């Protein structure tokens, strides 16, 4: 049996997963857009790349297995370590999440193919509002003044960017395709906003201890299922046969085409690993807020890499997003201190101190 993670260790995991999520969130739209602007046009392939690197999870899972085995031998003199922690009930729920994620990935890939990074990013940032709404309905999330303030500021920042998004339709792209890209990206944001609270609900309803190993198993299974969904789409669309032809016609060259595909799969897996880890270490809302606050940073990177214009609206949005991010975590720190002061251990110590 794996020992429960202490609150201090959870904070360490939260920091690590925030870094992983930051790399995945910022790198994903930039790499996907690079694929499309340099000659790539396979949306199902782009969907497939988002989760096909799921076997990477076997590395931390193997480390966790040997760690648990060592703990059991040292503490219980028992080397019969249970390899799989996931119950059949969680397994079935994970398959459902994987199917939803597969379609969310397709919607996101479609938006990335039709919209500039800045536009698709600001539209996807609306997932914060969807996450907050679904978290309230599904996991009965309690809002504090700080979390409400954070959602408000981040939403205002996204609206400011949206007001500036007109006129960025790529040359030669039909208006119909551009509008469909808007709709698909919003659909991806809505599905992501639904998935986050559903994952949190699974954690809460599971009749077993939720360990980080179980979280890794969960992510491995649902990314595998999402990959199956994308694989079916690729087979129907004959994307596998088109890869070699597309690579030869790629503007950056055939070698860089395959390098881009490999690095895309790794960075994209960072996004999913970080998302699930943050939900485990904190909550679905924290995951949504972190993704939203990284939006302006992605905007800055798009300006530096692709030469996109950094307007006043984007600067104001960046300031509002950072303000909202700090507001939420300041409130979270205050709530944590309040809970520690009211903990049973504190009350017991106080009662002992008062005993003559």
Automatic annotation (TrEMBL):
<keyword id="KW-0812">Transmembrane</keyword>
<feature type="transmembrane region" description="Helical">
    <location>
        <begin position="256"/>
        <end position="273"/>
    </location>
</feature>
<feature type="transmembrane region" description="Helical">
    <location>
        <begin position="88"/>
        <end position="109"/>
    </location>
</feature>
<protein>
    <recommendedName>
        <fullName>Probable purine permease</fullName>
    </recommendedName>
</protein>
<dbReference type="GO" id="GO:0005345">
    <property type="term" value="F:purine nucleobase transmembrane transporter activity"/>
</dbReference>
<feature type="transmembrane region" description="Helical">
    <location>
        <begin position="285"/>
        <end position="306"/>
    </location>
</feature>
<feature type="transmembrane region" description="Helical">
    <location>
        <begin position="121"/>
        <end position="139"/>
    </location>
</feature>
<feature type="transmembrane region" description="Helical">
    <location>
        <begin position="312"/>
        <end position="330"/>
    </location>
</feature>
<comment type="similarity">
    <text>Belongs to the purine permeases (TC 2.A.7.14) family.</text>
</comment>
<feature type="transmembrane region" description="Helical">
    <location>
        <begin position="178"/>
        <end position="202"/>
    </location>
</feature>
<dbReference type="InterPro" id="IPR037185">
    <property type="entry name" value="EmrE-like"/>
</dbReference>
<keyword id="KW-1133">Transmembrane helix</keyword>
<feature type="transmembrane region" description="Helical">
    <location>
        <begin position="146"/>
        <end position="166"/>
    </location>
</feature>
<feature type="transmembrane region" description="Helical">
    <location>
        <begin position="214"/>
        <end position="236"/>
    </location>
</feature>
<dbReference type="InterPro" id="IPR030182">
    <property type="entry name" value="PUP_plant"/>
</dbReference>
<feature type="transmembrane region" description="Helical">
    <location>
        <begin position="48"/>
        <end position="67"/>
    </location>
</feature>
<keyword id="KW-0472">Membrane</keyword>
<dbReference type="GO" id="GO:0016020">
    <property type="term" value="C:membrane"/>
</dbReference>
<keyword id="KW-0813">Transport</keyword>
<dbReference type="GO" id="GO:0015211">
    <property type="term" value="F:purine nucleoside transmembrane transporter activity"/>
</dbReference>
<feature type="transmembrane region" description="Helical">
    <location>
        <begin position="12"/>
        <end position="36"/>
    </location>
</feature>
<dbReference type="Pfam" id="PF16913">
    <property type="entry name" value="PUNUT"/>
</dbReference>
<feature type="region of interest" description="Disordered">
    <location>
        <begin position="337"/>
        <end position="356"/>
    </location>
</feature>
């Amino acid at each position: 049996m794996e020992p429960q993670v202490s609150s201090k260790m959870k904070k360490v995991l939260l920091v690590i997963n925030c870094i992983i999520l930051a790399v995945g969130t910022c790198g994903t739209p930039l790499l996907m857009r690079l694929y499309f602007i340099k000659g790539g046009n396979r949306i199902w392939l782009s969907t497939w790349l988002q989760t096909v690197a799921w076997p990477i999870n076997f590395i931390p899972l193997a480390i966790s297995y040997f760690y648990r085995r060592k703990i059991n031998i040292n503490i219980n003199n028992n080397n019969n370590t249970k390899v799989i922690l996931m119950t059949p009930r969680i397994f079935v729920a994970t398959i459902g999440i994987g199917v939803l994620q597969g379609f969310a990935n397709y919607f996101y890939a479609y938006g990335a193919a039709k919209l500039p990074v800045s536009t698709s990013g600001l539209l996807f940032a609306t997932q914060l509002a969807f996450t907050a709404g679904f978290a309230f309905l599904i996991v009965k999330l309690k809002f504090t003044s700080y979390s409400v303030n954070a959602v408000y500021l981040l939403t205002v920042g996204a609206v400011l960017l949206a007001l500036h998004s007109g006129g960025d339709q790529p040359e030669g792209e039909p208006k119909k395709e551009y509008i469909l890209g808007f709709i698909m990206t919003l659909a991806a944001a809505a599905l992501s906003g639904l998935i986050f609270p559903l994952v949190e609900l699974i954690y809460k309803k599971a009749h077993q201890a939720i360990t980080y190993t179980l979280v890794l198993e969960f992510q491995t299974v649902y990314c595998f299922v999402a990959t199956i969904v994308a694989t079916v789409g690729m087979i129907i669309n004959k994307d596998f046969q088109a890869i070699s032809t597309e690579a030869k016609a790629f503007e950056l060259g055939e070698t860089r085409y395959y390098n881009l595909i490999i690095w895309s799969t790794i960075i994209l897996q960072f996004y999913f690993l970080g998302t699930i880890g943050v939900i485990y270490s904190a909550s679905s809302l924290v995951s949504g807020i972190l993704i939203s606050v990284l939006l302006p940073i992605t905007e800055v990177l798009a300006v530096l890499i692709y030469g996109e214009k950094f307007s006043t609206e984007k600067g104001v949005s960046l300031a509002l997003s950072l303000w909202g991010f700090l507001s939420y975590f300041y409130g979270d720190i205050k709530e944590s201190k309040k809970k520690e002061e009211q903990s049973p251990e504190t009350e017991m110590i106080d009662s002992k101190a008062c005993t003559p």
